[in-house]
Amino acid sequence: MTRVRLPGTVLSVSRDDKHRFSKPTVSSIRLVAGFGVDGDSHAGATVQHLYEKKRNPSAPNLCQVHFMAAELFDDLVPTGYTVAPGELGENVTTEGINLMSLPLGTRLHLGAQAVVSITGMRSPCSLINGYQKGLMKQLIKTDAAGTVHRRGGIMGVVVRGGVVNPGDCIRVELPAGEQLPLGVV
């Protein structure tokens, strides 16, 4: 199914108060500055990912908000995978923005108030294969030159809070100065 694409738009929002692989979609989310998605298990000033929390519980939470491009879902269909918003654990499913090409420190302005600063790429874990066998190979690929390409979305921290709804516009603000590529967080 082909959808009409709107440039820089929130397609869907999701949150879950428990650490589960997928997040249910909701009618809106509230972003809290320095904390993340209100009511989400990954919200907090310090790391909330269970594995990372065991390693260093006082580390800053660079993964307060997870973004995933809906275009990825369309790209997966010919490979035999069907994925819907929230099913890969993202908080915000976007349309019309090449998320993986954004530089470090890019600010995404969501709706009327919210602003998120991009901290890095999500590195999908093997739990993805438990969700759909073999899906991880579609999200992390290595080209002939040995370069790893990740397609598991990007992460960020909330700079300014606000409510985010499906249909909200997303404005991209690139950082001043040198454009640094995203690393893995």
TrEMBL record:
Organism: Cryobacterium gelidum
Coiled coil region boundaries: none
UniProt cross-references to Pfam families, sorted A to Z: MOSC
Cited InterPro entries: MoCF_Sase_C, MOSC_domain, Pyrv_Knase-like_insert_dom_sf
Domain MOSC, first and last residues per copy: 24-173
Protein name: MOSC domain-containing protein
Taxonomic superkingdom: Bacteria
Upper classification of the organism: Bacteria, Bacillati, Actinomycetota, Actinomycetes, Micrococcales
Any one GO molecular-function label of the UniProt entry: pyridoxal phosphate binding
